[in-house]
Specification:
The structure is a single chain. The protein is mostly helical and 117 residues long. 85% of the residues lie in helices and 0% in strands. Helix 1 runs antiparallel to helix 2, helix 2 packs across helix 3 and helix 3 crosses helix 4.
Length: 117
């Protein structure tokens, strides 16, 4: 086992432990943790099984294995950015609806001559 392989395995395990710590503290939601755990397990798998990347590259017809890593990383980032955009759009819509409801409630309280807090 080469030094870089040991470093990659340790880094993957530390990252996996950090994800578990964030889940237990409630700082990372389960839906996002699932994605990070899958990515970390893929990295850990290819860290342990070095020839695996060559095998998978051969299956996809990619001549150089590092190119497969870059293509996979870019594709995963694009999918994740799309997911975050959908989430932000939904939150923005909910925030707008809450602001409108709050304004309506304030207006109703003003009509009743009750103090607005």
């Amino acid at each position: 086992m080469e030094r870089i392989q040991v470093i990659a395995i340790l880094a993957s395990l530390l990252f996996l432990g950090n994800i578990a710590r964030l889940i237990f503290k409630g700082k990372l939601r389960e839906e996002y943790a699932f994605i990070w755990i899958i990515c970390t397990l893929v990295l850990l798998t290819f860290s342990i099984w070095r020839e695996g990347l060559e095998v998978v590259s051969g299956l996809f017809g990619v001549y150089e294995a590092p190119n497969l890593v870059f293509i996979g990383a870019i594709f995963a980032i694009l999918i994740y950015l799309l997911h975050l955009s959908v989430t932000v759009s939904r939150l923005q819509r909910q925030n707008k609806m809450l602001a409108q409801e709050m304004a309506n409630l304030k207006e109703e309280l003003k009509r009743r001559n009750e103090p607005v807090k």
